[in-house]
Amino acid sequence: MWGAREPIYNLNHIIQLQAIIEIITIETAHALDLLAGQATQMQTAILQHPMVLDYLLAEEGGVCGKLNYSNCCLKIDDSGKIVKQMTVGIRKLAHVPVQTWKG
């Protein structure tokens, strides 16, 4: 039981926890980057469909004319760039430079 009270024992556990938190944070940032990229690709694909439908239904006033919609707007914000900027900040926060203990 005496070993658990030694400062080096506690320091080793703190360093292990720090490393685990850094790994989890970096992996989370990577996952968010992948999701942001996928969202940007989906936005592009989703915005292409109404353009094609409007072209095909041009004689009938496009999609809005065919469905008799007076307000027919499709807006999708691209938050992928913002998420990627946030993950850069997350990685900077998670990184801890190498530390040495001088007892």
TrEMBL record:
InterPro entries: TLV/ENV_coat_polyprotein. It comes from the Eukaryota. This is ENR1 protein. It comes from Accipiter nisus.
